[in-house]
Amino acid sequence: MARKIQAIRGMNDILPDQSSVWLYLEKTVADVVKSYGYQQIRFPIVENTDLFKRGVGETTDIVEKEMYTFDDRNGESLTLRPEGTASCVRAADQAGLLFNQTQRLWYTGPMFRYERPQKGRYRQFHQIGVEAFGMGSADIDAELITLSARLWKKLGLLEHVELQLNTIGLASEREAFKAALVEYLTGFKDQLDEDSQRRLVSNPLRILDSKDESTQSVLKNAPNLEDFIGEESQAHFERLQAILKANNVPYVINHRLVRGLDYYGKTVFEWVTSHLGSQATICAGGRYDGLVEQLGGKATPAVGFAMGIERLVLLLETLSLIPDTAKFSTDVFIISMGDDAEIASFVLAESIREIDLGRVVLRHCGGGNFKNQMKKADKSEARFTMILGQDEIDSGVCQIKDMSTGEQHTCLLADAPTYINEKL
Ligand code: ATP
Ligand code: MG
């Protein structure tokens, strides 16, 4: 036998027993974002490498060590998208959608990052992203966060997640804070973990994120970001909080929350859960007023977030929050013996679907004897089995078996589609 080729490490197949959860989640998200007026945008999985270098930032973890970058046959450097925001900005700006107008957009699809695969962390993973352009005031930050809270409510997750909120101010405020932080931390350099030592030069803000105990204890007496936040950023942050409070969206302020991407400023937030181990963040985002201009467009305020579908699916499964209606199940299984009955079974199946396409109607294909076909019906776990043989065709009837009780009765073939739809 030929050697089987395996999937790439960290890139998962979504098998039929899982895909129904994905469909349920995607449908719920589509309904929620639509009700807030967000329209879907789709853009390619591959972009020019420069888009992410410039967009996400050269010194971020993503660009430094996580991108799938390759030269195409023309020698052009391309990258499998590690996130959606930069692509979304590129696509919307290229189409002229950002010029002097507001946009509410969302997208879904695979992202690629070369990380160490573990539960809730993969190399191909999927995000749903929501982005709002052209609005600089705090009410749109609040709208996005409220939208996400509504989604959790709809999914039954609201009581299992916590909203962490922070403001990281304007670029100039962050620069002043960074300088003070670097100055302070340099004095304790040998007590910092290796990553943080490196970040002291490349991306000092990320040191606040470090999980390392020694680094965290050094940070206890470090300068505080909140002391560097100016009036405008503070007013923006307070307005956001006032709206969230009025909407009963609970949150906690986490002054250490900085996010890993360079483009954020002012608002940043994460929804975290205690049910997924260290992959605790299910949704993260913030304001990125500088990005459109940084990518060559006209300065446009923007705010957005992305959620990880795999982590959401894991969370829904862990908490048993997947409704029965979201699970795949067969309503009717039709078996037929003989050529005439086979044709009649087609007509019957189509008539049932004609009345209600929401029903799952399975026809046994390829004939076979009654006993074997009944075994298949059992295995399908259908609620009803409809049985057609030559005798039934001759009398214009079919047998309907209720698989939960075993009861079986004869029904006029012409009445059967309506009858079964009423029963289901
Ligand atoms: P983390 O701190 O967990 O690495 P991040 O800050 O890199 O997350 P973002 O780039 O903000 O994450 O992406 C938003 C969301 O996408 C995350 O909150 C998470 O739910 C999901 N996500 C990010 N990276 C992965 C991954 N490698 N595998 C699965 N989901 C991911
Ligand atoms: Mg990451």
Q: Main sheet: which strands, in order across?
A: 1-5-6-11-10-9-7-8
In this entry the ligands are: adenosine-5'-triphosphate, magnesium ion
CATH class of the largest domain: Alpha Beta
Low-confidence stretches: none
**What is the end-to-end distance?**
46 Å
CATH architecture of the largest domain: 2-Layer Sandwich
Proportion of beta-strand residues:
15-25%
- The count of domains is 2
Q: What percent of residues adopt helix (DSSP H or I)?
A: 25-40%
Radius of gyration (Å): 28 Å
Describe the structure.
- 38% of the residues are buried.
- This protein is 39% helix and 21% strand.
- The longest helix has 20 residues, at 16-35.
- Helix 5 runs parallel beside helix 9.
- The protein has 15 helices and 16 strands.
- The protein binds adenosine-5'-triphosphate and magnesium ion.
- Adenosine-5'-triphosphate (ATP) binds next to strand 6, strand 10, strand 11 and helix 11.
